[in-house]
Amino acid sequence: MTNAKKVTDFDAFLSNYDTTTLAIAATFILGIITVLIFFIKRSTGSGNSILFMGINNAGKTAIFLNLIKSENRLTITSMKQNEGTVQVGGKSLKIIDLPGNERIRKQYMDQFKKSVKAVFFVVDSFTLPKEVKDVAELLYDILIDGTLTKYSPTIVIVCNKQDHAMAKSSSVIKNLLQKELNTLRTTRAAALDSIDQNEKVNLLGKKNKDFEFSDLKFKVEFIESTIKDNDGKSGLSSVTDWLEKVA
């Protein structure tokens, strides 16, 4: 078939439809494509950054430095954000370590949360039982954050310092956090109700059901890590494996 014949056939096809019908069809197709792009972005996060968060002394900055600079430093307290790039799976991922200090943490979270692919929430597996309230408070704020809820990045709970003899396993930590988040959800809802009956409460999990991570729109995963294992070798393979999976 010649090019001239093809053009004639196409013109004949178009002549069977008026301009309005074609415009509606084009708008419909464009709408479907837009929706598909939106859900793809929601499932993978809106950017290419990994946000490290956690309360003070959880070990997140030590993990950050070991990933970026391969430094076996066990304890570091940061008062401002640390930024770096790690190469995994032949690709680059930007890693942002936010301060654990409560007074300045929110400022940096608001600055970087729109570019997040995943949030690495680091907890101290040894001290968690006595710090679970503070840990749950921060995690709760992350899970109900409007921007993060919109883009739904994966939340990775990093159960750090597994080299300690009394460290809790990831399954125990998961149960402890679920119970504390359930309690916190009840107390926060009650506090809001006592202040303003008309204020909308951003419910964590499902109504009339004890909180479970599986009820969230977020994908939540638990991994275990340590800067050094009992043989003095790096125990961050679970972290690097996960980074490679999402790179």
UniProtKB/TrEMBL annotation:
<dbReference type="GO" id="GO:0005789">
    <property type="term" value="C:endoplasmic reticulum membrane"/>
</dbReference>
<dbReference type="GO" id="GO:0034067">
    <property type="term" value="P:protein localization to Golgi apparatus"/>
</dbReference>
<dbReference type="InterPro" id="IPR019009">
    <property type="entry name" value="SRP_receptor_beta_su"/>
</dbReference>
<dbReference type="InterPro" id="IPR005225">
    <property type="entry name" value="Small_GTP-bd"/>
</dbReference>
<comment type="subunit">
    <text>Interacts with SYS1.</text>
</comment>
<dbReference type="InterPro" id="IPR027417">
    <property type="entry name" value="P-loop_NTPase"/>
</dbReference>
<comment type="similarity">
    <text>Belongs to the SRP receptor beta subunit family.</text>
</comment>
<dbReference type="GO" id="GO:0043001">
    <property type="term" value="P:Golgi to plasma membrane protein transport"/>
</dbReference>
<dbReference type="GO" id="GO:0003924">
    <property type="term" value="F:GTPase activity"/>
</dbReference>
<dbReference type="GO" id="GO:0005525">
    <property type="term" value="F:GTP binding"/>
</dbReference>
<keyword id="KW-0472">Membrane</keyword>
<dbReference type="GO" id="GO:0005794">
    <property type="term" value="C:Golgi apparatus"/>
</dbReference>
<keyword id="KW-0342">GTP-binding</keyword>
<keyword id="KW-1133">Transmembrane helix</keyword>
<dbReference type="Pfam" id="PF09439">
    <property type="entry name" value="SRPRB"/>
</dbReference>
<feature type="transmembrane region" description="Helical">
    <location>
        <begin position="20"/>
        <end position="40"/>
    </location>
</feature>
<keyword id="KW-0547">Nucleotide-binding</keyword>
<keyword id="KW-0675">Receptor</keyword>
<dbReference type="InterPro" id="IPR024156">
    <property type="entry name" value="Small_GTPase_ARF"/>
</dbReference>
<keyword id="KW-0812">Transmembrane</keyword>
<comment type="function">
    <text>Trans-Golgi-associated GTPase that regulates protein sorting. Controls the targeting of ARL1 and its effector to the trans-Golgi. Required for the lipidation of chylomicrons in the intestine and required for VLDL lipidation in the liver.</text>
</comment>
<keyword id="KW-0256">Endoplasmic reticulum</keyword>
<protein>
    <recommendedName>
        <fullName>ADP-ribosylation factor-related protein 1</fullName>
    </recommendedName>
</protein>
<dbReference type="GO" id="GO:0006886">
    <property type="term" value="P:intracellular protein transport"/>
</dbReference>
